[in-house]
Target: CstA N-terminal domain-containing protein
Amino acid sequence: MGPVRKLMTNRYVATVLTLGAGWLLCLGGYKNVWPLFGSANQLLAALVLIALAVFLRTTGRSGWMLYVPMGVMLVVTFTALVQALIGIGKKIFITGDFVFLTDGLQLIVALALTCLGVLVAASCFKKLAAPKEEEVKKAA
Model:
């Protein structure tokens, strides 16, 4: 284990980093973080639906009843995240009233949520689109 990894896995360092991030969020005010908290919550719900659909498919059960709510949740959540990113982008490039403590933190969180959500959703959709094991065995 390298020295950086050893430092980052130390429970005291992890606690300080977690509390520090929470403290920074408090400085900006909860109103600045609340929309992204809502997006994170909705994204978590959508990813749970995707994970359930993948689980049901891999266990041979039907998960079709999850597809519509899953799609709606993903579309709504990613739309909200993209709108947040566009709003922050306007502050940076058009109006110029970008404040790093609030807007920068929102930008980082919105980008992280979007990227991680897309990665997880794409991975799960690959599993859902893949042929079932029985179909592969029959074809062989």
About this structure: The chain has a mean pLDDT of 86. Residues 29-133 form one domain. The radius of gyration is 20 Å. The CA atoms of residues 46 and 71 lie 8 Å apart.
